[in-house]
Amino acid sequence: MPQSAAKIIKLDRRKRRSERRDQAVAFYLDGVRAQQGIDAVGVATEDGLLVAGSGPVDLESLAAHAAAGPARALRWNQSTLHVHRFKALGSTLLLASSGKAVSGREVLERLTQIIEG
Questions:
Q1: Any idea which fold 3-116 has?
Q2: pLDDT of residue 16
Q3: Helix, strand, coil proportions of the chain in percent (round to 5)?
Q4: In whole angstroms, how far apart are CA 87 and each of 2, 17, 34, 45, 95?
Q5: Residue 70: its pLDDT value, please?
Q6: Rounded CA gap, 6 and 31, in Å?
């Protein structure tokens, strides 16, 4: 695991924890956003419902647009919305980021671990 990804995980696990999965995901996304310099990031269902997010934008709109089609990158809110699909709890979820794509497969792996408990 790259050192930067390990720092994100350690930072989140030590300073901010929650028994609620949505809040735990939001805390983790806060760390990812800060570490990678991403404008906003969110996890959504395939139906466009927001699971959790981080950033100074309408996160529900971010989630809805991420689910609008199969594209991995689309225009949204005067920026590029990057979408990665991943599986958790037997469902496909979307990781959407504004301005810059989330880097590192370990981010998706950690999100899956948090969501699946």
A1: Beta-Lactamase (3.30.450)
A2: 63
A3: 40, 30, 30
A4: 22, 23, 24, 10, 11
A5: 84
A6: 11
pLDDT tens-digit readout, 72-101: 998 888 999 999 999 999 999 999 999 899
Calpha distance 66→2 (Å, rounded): 27
Q: Give me the torsion for CA of 103, 41, 77, 51, rounded to 10°.
A: 140
pLDDT reading at 13 higher than 50: no
Q: Which single residue is written with the structure tokens 């599986």?
A: 87
Say if residue 3's pLDDT is above 70.
no
CA contacts within 13 A on the Cβ side of 52: 16
DSSP code of residue 37? T
Q: Are strands 50-54 and 73-76 parallel, antiparallel or unpaired?
A: unpaired
